[in-house]
Design the sequence.
């Protein structure tokens, strides 16, 4: 019997495959396509304290084996999420991870407090609540100017420290590939009490509409994701997994069971599937089963046997 | 996975693809199609053109890589489709006109079937295509090649108008309709990631609010859309 | 009449399309396929003072819309190049750019001196010689450990300064996408007297052979290139072009005339074609013509009209 | 761009592709093929199987995406090929044997044509394929399905042996040949970027030196190769 159940930051998962933030909404439409308990967990779209309208203009663009997006964190705000989405999101029999974004330190901490409070109340009432917060420190559009929170170690530290104080929930910090020193930032997060790290977020990229003679996106740059970035993401996950002892969640271009094994061998405790959900809306229906079959063929009894062996 | 029954070329770059299976869809809804593995990344949104008990068909124009790959499909080939998605056209009230420009005719065949007494107006820059289906269903088909089909439509004669076509054409129809009582609904296009409302990439402004083309649309009341935005897409 | 001739660091080019280092050898085999004067110039494979055997194991691997390579700078050494390759390389009627790598500061400066000396001698004899040096500060396998020269500004500065002193030839510095602060490094190069910058070199990436349970490459990481990285390269070129006033040569995933225009609009003075030479061995035969046709369709009379307009 | 004349399936995953055009190539040389745009990135090296005045043909096994795309080609389709590249097999001296394992038979047909009195040994894990061509050319064809073809070859009876097949098979043939006077030349495979000697990705060690499979090979003297290296590729 091959086992793929695992644990992430103290939360037991039926398998290591999570749906990545921004590509899965709060799960709802996918639940019509397959039972979401087939996933280890789902990460909510990025939420901020207050609702955000998102960016104007083109928001999505296709590139060779990738897509670029500039959604700009459009979201209904944490209160609306708690009121209208959380209970359904927690009803699918899979782990609930809330992706928390923000523009200022206060927005982050107030958001974390709201989430924590609501979650504890639900738990007290015996209901499934928020299993984990994923802190996104690489939001576009923030006060400090662009990706600064995710780039400079000092700025990241302030956010991680404050949010860590604001919540008792298990805390993942999602790192940006644009960090000036990724390994250093990972170690900082560990030192500040993060329970785990997830990476990578999209890579800053550009596309130009040569007919219109302007950037395709209203904000000059946008984030690249999808199979194109997988080799870069894998390298970064490998580097980070060897730099810290907290678990690392691998993200970036994963689109088959082989890719998942690569990330686990590189040291990931679990993985997230982002863009691939668009390539195959039913990806999560079969990936766990495909992973088991692959491990069977390769004679790998459990993920622990191969995790971080490279 | 579904099977291709037929993929016929109707005109330069224009094809009709028929796929086996029993689907139900409302007029104006669309499917996300792909007949390739992971390259290109995204599936392509295509409106339902026609439905029978055991098939669904699409009318499409070869635009770039994706539709070019679709055009190479042959009977017996496999294709992936998810859907139907979107709200489609609303229930029409009173006298109804369907106005299509070029490949914008695609979703109107199903509409013509659902609203048998609708007047159909189809405009083409050059050679018309896909007319047989319309003539079989409707006795009231006006076709124009070259020039603009909007000239042929008198909005004051209708209570409901459904339009699909180039933004410019729909905009001028909207301007013409403004002074009448007709309710104009237009089918809008924007680049789509998921097709199911989770990625927020297909938003447009309608009635001052951010709406998703894939789940709130693709059909919107012409009065509520932001034409400046649509022209830019 | 559309004109695409241009100037780079004082060297006139018949068009802005150069062949990138490591993908074109010294030109020879391509010369059998088409006249190399159709290119604006060719950049030699990376040369070091002494010959290098390159890396063991797999050296090339395909990824979605990209390739990874770990050649490890295999090259015959500068002396052998000067003796056996330069005169033919200079015979094609196109600009000759020598890509200079190194493991230590001394290797760099001695290399630059050798090249400069040889070039001046040839020029004195009325022969075409080396038009430009492209300093590659992002070689793998160097003393300082991995990509350090291209990552840390201080280390890069030492190399650029020393090489600038060692040569009177026009000097391009080729930047690594792994630089900790790319814009800062670009400004440093300008301050140190570089005549131009070229970017990007390959992006550090990883692939794992899950059957063998080891990295595909003997050295864990390798460099990613090709269409997959174009959106990232374009963003970096845009950032750098706005940070300096010396010319910038755009590199990364370019595979059609449209791509070239994007880079020029982002601010590039010229571009290099790398991986695309493998996709189409005759790429250089038609690209300049395709660029002219595209400019004609788009109503762009010259590159100067659109350079850096974004 | 060249035209496909024929692409026939000979066995499970095995195809023979014939392309229009007048090419000249030596036995053991290869072409870089592609019938797709930029995805996948690299062209695929395939040995020349046969040549006529107005065609070149390839025998290939569907391995991954590239060969799978090749297998979908039909008569009249377009394909890009560059070549021939590489040195191919050297001039044979004296009595010659050609030993192929599985798809390794591919380059040996041209060799059998150039060396009409050579003995041909072909081994297959299961069902043999592509034999007709060999039987038309040579009276001396030994075929073995299952087991190893090396058992059927007595190297001491030959002065020159050309082999192509799995590394394990070639290695055991090399060991068997060591004690004889026969000169064994093997055709080696390694991932290729350019195919023309510029990228240094296809290097192997031969006689202690770094050599390129694409321009110095793909054929190397068995005595000079580093088997450890080859087993790892
Ligand atoms: C709701 C909806 C219904 C549609 N119905 C039809 C139809 O019935 N028949 C038909 O011919 N076309 C229809 N289209 C347009 C069709 O989706 C595009 O022509 C197609 O996606 C182009 O893909 P491509 O790969 O050929 O072109 P490319 O330009 O190579 O595509 C690149 C990317 O841009 C997107 N894209 C390009 N053009 C459009 C567009 N106009 N709208 C949305 N995304 C686009 C593609 O989906 C892809 O992600 C519809 C679009 C929408 C949004
Ligand atoms: C000189 C030479 C001659 C060859 N002749 C033949 C032939 O006549 N018939 C035949 O069936 N095969 C031949 N091969 C092997 C053939 O090139 C590979 O099977 C093919 O490249 C696999 O491509 P793919 O996309 O199907 O597989 P994938 O595994 O998807 O290919 C991924 C990448 O790896 C490379 N690759 C994978 N396997 C090999 C391999 N064995 N050798 C080199 N590169 C590989 C591909 O070229 C591609 O770049 C030859 C190889 C070489 C080097
Ligand atoms: C449309 C889209 C929206 C995204 N929104 C978010 C977000 O709100 N918060 C976040 O942390 N990451 C967001 N991401 C990044 C993904 O979660 C993921 O890190 C990235 O896409 C890389 O994974 P992939 O290559 O599998 O898509 C988004 C990605 C996409 C494509
Ligand atoms: C096989 C290979 C070898 C390379 N060798 C060198 C080199 O020796 N020196 C160098 O500066 N860049 C080298 N490069 C990097 C390219 O010059 C170029 O910067 C990079 O590939 C990005 O461009 P592309 O996407 O067009 O290939 C090499 C790239 C490849 C693919
Ligand atoms: S396409 Fe994803 S929300 Fe509409
Ligand atoms: S394949 Fe490029 S050197 Fe051999």
Sequence:
């Amino acid at each position: 019997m091959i086992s793929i159940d695992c644990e992430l930051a103290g939360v037991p998962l039926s398998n290591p495959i999570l749906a990545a933030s921004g590509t899965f909404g709060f799960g709802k439409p996918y639940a019509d396509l397959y039972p979401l308990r087939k996933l280890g967990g789902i990460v909510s779209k990025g939420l901020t304290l207050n609702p955000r309208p998102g960016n104007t203009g083109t928001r999505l663009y296709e590139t060779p084996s990738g897509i670029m997006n500039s959604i700009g964190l459009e979201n209904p705000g944490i209160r609306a999420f708690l009121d209208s989405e959380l209970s359904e999101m927690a009803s699918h029999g899979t782990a609930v991870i809330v992706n928390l974004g923000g523009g200022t330190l206060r927005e982050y901490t107030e958001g974390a407090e709201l989430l924590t409070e609501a979650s504890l109340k639900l738990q007290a009432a015996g209901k499934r609540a928020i299993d984990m917060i994923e802190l996104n420190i690489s939001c576009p559009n923030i006060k400090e100017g662009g990706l600064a929170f995710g780039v400079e170690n000092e700025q990241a530290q302030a956010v991680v420290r404050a949010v860590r104080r604001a919540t008792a929930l298990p805390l993942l910090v999602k790192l940006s590939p644009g960090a000036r020193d990724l390994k250093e930032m990972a170690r900082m997060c560990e030192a500040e009490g993060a329970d785990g790290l997830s990476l990578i977020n999209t890579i800053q990229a550009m596309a130009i509409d040569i007919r219109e003679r302007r950037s395709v996106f209203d904000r000059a740059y946008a984030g690249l994701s999808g199979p194109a970035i997988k080799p870069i993401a894998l390298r970064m996950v490998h580097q980070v997994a060897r730099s810290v002892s907290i678990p690392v969640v691998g993200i970036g271009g994963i689109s088959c069971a082989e890719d998942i094994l690569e990330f686990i061998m590189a040291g990931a405790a679990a993985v997230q599937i982002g863009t691939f959900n668009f390539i195959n809306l039913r990806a999560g229906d079969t990936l766990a089963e495909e992973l088991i079959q692959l491990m069977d063929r390769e004679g790998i009894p459990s993920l622990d046997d191969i995790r971080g062996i490279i | 996975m579904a099977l291709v029954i037929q993929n016929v070329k109707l005109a330069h770059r224009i094809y009709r693809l028929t796929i086996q299976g029993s689907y139900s869809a409302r007029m104006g809804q669309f499917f996300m199609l792909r007949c390739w593995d992971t390259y290109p990344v995204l599936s392509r949104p295509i409106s339902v053109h026609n439905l029978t008990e055991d098939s669904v068909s699409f009318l499409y124009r070869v635009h770039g890589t994706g539709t070019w790959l679709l055009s190479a499909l042959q009977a017996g080939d496999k294709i992936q489709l998810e859907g139907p998605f979107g709200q489609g056209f609303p229930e029409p009230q009173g006298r109804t006109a369907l106005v299509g420009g070029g490949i914008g005719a695609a979703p109107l065949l199903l509409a013509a079937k659902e609203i048998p007494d609708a007047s159909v107006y189809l405009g083409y820059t050059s050679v018309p295509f896909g007319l047989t289906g319309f003539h079989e269903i409707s006795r009231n088909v006006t076709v124009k090649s070259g020039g603009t089909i909007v000239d042929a439509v008198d909005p004051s004669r209708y209570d409901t108008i459904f339009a699909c076509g180039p933004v410019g054409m729909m905009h001028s129809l909207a301007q013409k309709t403004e002074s009448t009582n007709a309710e104009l609904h237009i089918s809008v296009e924007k680049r789509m990631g998921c097709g199911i409302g989770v990625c927020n990439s297909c938003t447009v402004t309608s009635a001052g609010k951010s709406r998703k083309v894939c789940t709130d649309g693709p059909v919107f009341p012409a009065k509520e859309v932001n034409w400046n935005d649509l022209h830019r897409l």
Observations:
- The mean pLDDT of chain A is 94.
- The radius of gyration of chain A is 18 Å.
